[in-house]
Amino acid sequence: RPRVLSGIQPTSGSFHLGNYLGAVRQWVAQQDTHDAFYMVVDLHALTVVQDPEALRADSRVAAAQLLAAGLDPERCTVFIQSHVPEHAQLGWVLNCLTGFGEASRMTQFKDKSVKQGTDRTTVGLFTYPVLMAADILLYQSDAVPVGGDQRQHLELTRVLAERFNGRYGETFKVPDAFIVPETARITDLQDPALKMSKSSSTPKGIVNLLDEPKVSAKKIKSAVTDTDTVIRYDEENKPGVSNLLTIYAALTGATVADLEQRYEGKGYGALKTDLAEVYTEWATPFRDRTREYLDDPETLDSILAKGAEKARAVAAETLARVYERVGFLPAK
Ligand code: TYM
Predict the structure, then answer these.
(1) CA of 23 to the centre of ligand 1 (A)
(2) ipTM of the complex
(3) Residue 201: left (phi > 0), alpha (psi -120 to 50), or beta?
(4) Ligand 1 binding pocket, CB closer than 6 Å
(5) Catalytic positions, please?
(6) pTM > 0.80
(7) Rounded to whole angstroms, how far apart are CA atoms 196 and 249?
(8) Cα separation values, 151 from 94, 170, 184, 257, Å
(9) 205: nearest Cα among 214, 218, 213, 196
(10) Tens digit of pLDDT for each residue in 8-22?
(11) Segment 42-74, tens digit of pLDDT
C-alpha cells in the first residue's frame, strides 16, 4: 500500500469548512487505500504565540475532530506531532540543508511576516516549511493530501528530499502533493476572492465546524454572491456562487452539473437555504461525536498514545538512517 501523511494545526480549536473539504475529507477516504498517518501539528502551532493551557486543550479538540470526521484508529495512525521527537530532530538536519533565500521565498512566510512585522515574526515561523518537510520525509510518504495553499511547501519538500538523496545517497522517497482540484481552495463566505482562513477570515466569512450549526447556517444564508440571478459555476464572474456550489457538491456527493440543473430557474435564496440545511445535517452529528470523544479524554489519550507508538517506529527508522548518512557518531 502506498503511504500518505498529512497534518493539521490545532490552533483556535475548531477546524473550518476549508480544512475539512480541502484536506480532512480526503484523509478519511485514504485510510482505506493507503497506509495512512495523520497528525495534529502542535510544533507548528508554536510558531505563533500560544497560551499553554489553550494549546493543550486545542490539541485534544483537534484530535477529537479528526476521529469525529471519520478517521478510524484501527485503519490509520492518528497522533500528536510533539509525541514523536524525530520530527524536530530531522527538522534540524533539513534546516542545515535549506538555503536562507530559499526559505525566504515561501509565500506563506512572506505574507505572515509582513502582517506581523519582523520583530514579532519568529525564526520558527521562518523554518516552518522545513519542519513540514521533515514531517513528510520521516514517513517515506508517497503522497500528501492537502489544500492548494500547501503546494509550495510540498515543492520545497521534494527539493530537500532530492538534495539530501543527491548529497548522501538515496534515503528519502520524493513525495507528491495530493490536491483535489475541486476543493483545493474553499473561499471566504464574505469575500470570495480570499481563501477561508483561521487567521484572516472575518467571523462571518468562516464556517467553524464546532460552532452551533444555527450560527453557521446563518452565515451560509448571508454569503456574498453577485447581482446576477443565475445559479451557474463560474469562478471568475460568480466566485461566491461557485464556492457555494463547490461546498454543496462536496457535502452531498452531487456533481456541480447536477446542482446547476436542479437549481435552474431558482434564486440564490433557495440555494443558500438548502445548503444551510445540508450543512446542518452534516455538522450536527459531527459536533456530537467530537463532544463524545472530548468527554472521554482517557480513551482519546490512549488512541493518541498508540498512534504515537506506531508513528515513532517508522520515524525512528528513517532518522537513524539519516543520522548515519550525515556522519553522526552513534551513541553506544
Ligand atoms: P493548516 O492547519 O493550515 O490546514 C490544514 C489543511 O487544511 C487545508 N486548508 C484548506 N483547503 C481548502 N480550502 C481552504 N480554504 C483551506 N484552508 C486550509 C490546508 O491546505 C491543509 O491541508 N502546514 C500545514 C500543516 C502541516 C502539514 C504537515 C501538512 C504541518 N506538517 C505535513 C501536510 C504534511 C498547515 O498549516 O495546515
Answers:
(1) 7
(2) 0.99
(3) beta
(4) 5-9, 18-19, 22-23, 41, 44, 132, 135-136, 144, 146-147, 149-150, 184-186, 195-197
(5) 112, 195, 198
(6) yes
(7) 17
(8) 19, 24, 10, 27
(9) 196
(10) 999 989 999 999 999
(11) 999 999 889 999 999 999 999 999 999 999 999
